[in-house]
Amino acid sequence: MDQKTRNSLIAAAVILFGFGLVAYFMPTFMIALGNESPVAAGVLAAVFVAAFFLVFWLRGRSQRRNDE
Fold it and tell me: What tens digit of pLDDT does each residue of 41-67 get?
């Protein structure tokens, strides 16, 4: 395993761990926020899912730029 592959693996693991941790606590966040506003709880869930894909899209874009 070369240095670049190892760094990519570590970055992906950190990102997945971070999102996994937030996903673990997401029901608690949504219940607390849903008590105030059900719409806000739905927006929170949508932002979480969009952020997951956005982070990996930005990382891929950054990697493509570095490869050129």
Answer: 999 999 999 998 999 899 888 888 877
